[in-house]
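Q: What does the assembled structure look like for these inputs?
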Amino acid sequence: MFSLNQKISVRQLQVLSILHVFGAGIIMLPRQAAAYGGQDAWIIVLLAACAALIFTYLMATVGRKFPADSFVSMTARLLSAPVGKCLAVLLALKLILSCGLALRLFSDILRQTMMRNTPCFVVCAAMGAVGAYTAAKGYETRARMAQILFPLILLPVLIVFCLAAFEADFSNLKPVFSTPPRDMFMGVFRSSAAFNGLELILLIHPYARRPDGVRKGLMQAMIFSGVLMALITGITIARLGAIDVTRQLWPVLEMMGLIDLPGSFIDRQDALVMSFWILSTFAVVNCELFFSALLFKDTVGKGKHAYYIIACLAAILVISFLPLSAERVNQIQTWLYSTLDVGFMAVLPILLLAAAKIRKIGGA
Amino acid sequence: MRKRAFTALILCLLTTGCWDKVELEDRGFVVSIGLDKFQAQSGRLTLTGAEQDNQYTVTAVMPNGMDIKENAVSDKTKSVKSADSATVSGALRLIDMGSSQKLYLKQAKMLLWSESLLQDEKLFQQALDAMERSQDISRKMFLIASKEPAWKVLSAPLGGEPMLGVFMENFYKNNGGGGSILFRQILQKTISDLRSSGCTVMPVLEIKDLDHPEKKDASTDKAPEDTEASRIMLTGCAVIRNYTLAGYLNAIETRGYEWIGGHCRDAEISLPRAEEQWPMRVIESGAKFFFSEEGGALRCDVEIHVTGDLDEHHFTGASVSLDRMQVYAAEFETAIAGEITRTADILQKQWGADAYHFKESLRKKNSNLFQRYGEDWESSYRSMKIIPRVRVELVSAGSVR
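A:
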């Protein structure tokens, strides 16, 4: 039974990473980037993708050295057991918080755009329950599901975006490179928050069928995500203008809502982005549930994974029920990114690589 | 097995259905919304006790499903509801309260602004903000201006075309991309234009004999429905500057504006001569701007390329020669340049309204000049020289089918 198989292929890993990145960032990214770079936002997104590429390389290199080790055992070997356990708990708590916030944002958008009268807890609980079930079924289950749904949803979205490009006024992207370097840097830093969740690269190697191919595969996935996100940002700005994009809470949805396809079967193209985003959020929820539970299980060293998943789900749902506005959620996510995410994605891999070199342990 | 069947049953119960379900017959699909500055009148919905705060009159037009019979389109098929309130959203809520159906605004096709509201900067800005904020309102909705009160225009009996929102939707669909006063303006573009250059334009809709429709019917032999449908007219455009109405352009002046906008497809320009009319139908038109500096002021060269054909001609027995075609083309070039200059004079000199969005174009195309002139754009724009350079290419004399 494939649901009992915990190993996934590099292709499946790529699909999951793309979904994770999109789920975390695509809805709000153009606005965040345009707030700093105006019409240069697409360049900011490209540069943020380059930063994410560097983080990916660092983390995948660490994982490659310890392909069979869990995060707890790897950090314990390199930085001592107590430090390893502390880091694992910290990462698990961060995952729970970011998953709760993502769920909160998801329910907010869903309620405002589609299901106004549905209570927040129903949306969050439904998504949480589905995510938990998939997480409990093992790593490959969600990978297979993502692999099947990904092309079905991504292709229509891409086609609609291509058609949107025909209606866009690309002169809205001019003048190019007019953003001061300081704003550009801040924009890149803030926008790279859209790539949060990449720290999970440190945890995935034991689940890869071919750990050697993980780094290359993830780099390719990041390039694909970065280029696609820059394209979507560019088209959104070309269609709405930079000023308008900074005022919209969810500019991509607005832009899709404006597309007028002649002879179109679907009147509301924003539903396509929504369906892609729902799948992405599902990927984010089950991934973060899976890994947060795993981290706690590895730290404690006993108990069933499923029980930890239930406990984590309860914590995530409590966070998602907090009455936080989209702006506040965004603020907390940015804070999380600039502290814990950067720590786990950039500082920790460098520390681990340095420790591996000094202690002369780990693969080549 | 029992366990699985139970799970399947529970799943069927929990995962089907919809919390937000509203039956179709319980939905009030609004097709047009009219916005007026408040003027006291009885018979409208209002929040009793707060009448002194009323600022807006909002009118919503919905199809009346109960009265729609097969092939029987009449004024009974529309339901018009108006409400007075301090805010646009408050008035919409009142209309919702006053209706047995749940108001659904996402299918609204047209937003009609009355002159009284367009003249009030604060109220216009607030109403626009309400429209932009509302998740229920489509930003693709057409914006139309009216010299008459919007509630009056929307309530007018129009046999054959009872609902203006549907009429405008079909009109733009069938005249899609057409030029002259056929241009369309949507909510998103209006907001974006006002934010970037502080100026926008809206087509003006008029209904002939709005107050006395019966007089019109009596004076004609035509069928009433034809007569009434033909009373709806687009007569030009309203120019909005800094969130207030700067003035109106008539149809020819609007075309003068649209040459620079580059959307004059299907427009017909006619040159009256001593014994003949030279009409040209525009097949395609496009404009490009080039900014420079001249004598300490901005200069904008507008290159307009028009492709057209002679629509009709008496020919006096001879076909139109190539030389003659060139003479015609040169005459059209002069006429088009004249239209542009006249409209530019009104917009630039009289109203100081940058309806062409030259400021945005300058920002995109020439950042050096923008830095020099963009800060005090008002005076830079007024003193800017607009030089139209029109090139007309007549591709056919219309003599061969």
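Chain A has a mean pLDDT of 87.
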